Structure prediction request, 194 residues.
Amino acid sequence: MENPTESALMRQRIDEAHAQGTTLKIDYRWAPLSSIPRHVRMAILVSEDGTFYSHAGVDWHEVLESIETNLEEGRIVRGGSTITQQLAKNLYLSTSRDPIRKGKELLITWMLESTLNKKRILELYLNIIEWGPGVFGIEAAAQRYFHKPASGLTMDEGARLAAVIPSPLRHQPTETTSYVEKKKELILRRMSVR
Prediction:
């Protein structure tokens, strides 16, 4: 698989802006996995998918935990998607919570896992996920928020970037809000025990 030049989520965000009568400029820059510091990759893995290297695309334990939590709460409060599932959704699908979309996501996840190695999946994920309005990929995020290339990110900056992945349109990694600070500290603690 070649490096993508755009994703379904980028197109979705452009369409959403257009529907609101505005335009959205996409900031998307590619960074090879080898240029992303190990501590940054680790922060994202412990935050988003701690069992990334041991599952085949779906973490069934997390799926069951999410279902149980969401049933208890009566609404969706917890996701159970792996990095590969998030990649499938962002690259090819949409943010819709439609069950049919989820079925497509599982099929694409299986295809990604059966054709790409984990290193490539992680590289694709880090380069296409959203980190703010119009900000896609870790290189664009590093430049936007920390004014440096992804290769120069510190452990704290990597943890801050990881902290906002679930809500990149609501939170920025440079914020000192309770949410970002608590999540960053949790990520750093998880990293210290690995």
Observations:
- The radius of gyration is 16 Å.
- DSSP finds nine helices and three strands in the chain.
- Residues 8-192 form a domain with the Penicillin binding protein transpeptidase fold fold (CATH 1.10.3810.10).
- The longest strand covers residues 130-132.
